[in-house]
Design brief:
By secondary structure, the protein is α+β, with helices and mostly antiparallel strands. The chain has a domain of 123 residues: 60s Ribosomal Protein L30, Chain: A (2-Layer Sandwich). Helices cover 31% and strands 16% of the residues. The chain is built from three helices and six strands. Strands 1, 2, 3, 4, 5 and 6 form a six-stranded mixed β-sheet that branches. Strand 4, helix 3 and strand 5 form a beta-alpha-beta unit. It starts with a helix and ends with a strand. The relative contact order is 0.20.
């Protein structure tokens, strides 16, 4: 009898634990976006405000196209991530919300979400993490009503990351670039 009760308790605990892992991150309204969240993020300054370093709007697409579609690079700011994370911080969601608004007004356009990582970790690990970051952005855009068929993802991993930087200096490499596809 005691073994049956223990087995039932273990089964119920497992079901509750697994069901908690399937929740989708809901959109945050534009007016309530808050700070960048903890998880070991080192902003580079002790003020607590995070100002990501500026980067050129250059593209990895030398001919200005992706899969035969013209690209628009630099229209939206990149979505930055904490170290070793693919969770989108509340303060970064506004960037994806603006992209969703743009896509809602431009029904024939698509979007490419390019996941990137810093130089820490193996190349394979960083390609997987870049893909997870791009897919997190894809899932968030889907919750905002953007049809999945309009969203493409690509992982660059750490292929173009600046090596040798400290973790707090590598923040510009932990991102998803938002590229419009015409």
């Amino acid at each position: 009898m005691i073994h049956n009760i223990r087995n039932v308790f273990i089964l119920i605990s497992a079901i509750l634990l697994l069901s908690a892992c399937t929740r989708t991150q809901l959109p945050t309204p534009l007016d309530t976006a808050s700070g960048f969240g903890g998880e070991g993020f080192v902003p580079g300054e002790t003020s607590g405000e995070w100002n990501p370093p500026a980067r050129e709007a250059g593209s990895s697409y030398n001919d200005g196209t992706y899969n035969g579609r013209p690209t628009v690079v630099g229209l939206f700011k990149p979505v930055y991530f904490n170290f070793d994370s693919s969770s989108i911080a509340a303060s970064e969601r506004e960037k994806l919300q603006k992209a969703a608004q743009y896509l809602s007004k431009n029904k024939s356009f698509g979007i490419l979400l390019e996941g990137r990582c810093d130089w820490y970790g193996t190349a394979d690990y960083n390609l997987a993490l870049g893909e997870q970051r791009a897919n997190s952005a894809r899932n968030y855009l889907s919750t905002l009503g953007i049809n999945d068929s309009r969203i493409e993802t690509l992982s660059k991993g750490s292929l173009e990351a600046t090596s040798g930087l400290a973790k707090n200096q590598s923040v510009q490499d932990r991102r998803v670039d938002i590229i419009i596809l015409k």
